[in-house]
Amino acid sequence: MLRHTALKSFASALLVAVALTGCDSEEGTRVDERGGTVTSDDGRVTLSIPAGALADEVAIRIVESEALPEDAGGPAYEIQPIGVTFSFPAELAYTVDGNMNEDTHLVVARDDQWNALADHEVDLNNLEVTASVLYTSTIGLVD
Fold this sequence. Notes:
About 15% of the residues lie in helices and about 45% in strands. It has about 140 residues and is mainly beta.
């Protein structure tokens, strides 16, 4: 019985620790030098940050943006806080909700214009576009 009670206490403490250090939709997902993954609330956009890409802990969140590139193929997303740089490229994945083609690509907002991310890959089977990013910004999908 004592063993069962200790196990329940440990499980409760673990849940509290996860709740305190995990994801708060207002604050973001805390990512540090160990790397991590941040996903938008709707599940469409995922940012995978490799180990060593960040020197300090940062709370990152991905929220839908009102800014849209011309010929947008879906909503744009702001990766907050804007301007966090990575020592190594992070992978951004955008799952498309609808039609896409081989020309579909990701763009990033910079200096009041949208620029294509150079190394994008289009996965027509999984309706997903991926690209490498070196900093957080507003991203969009263009057909």
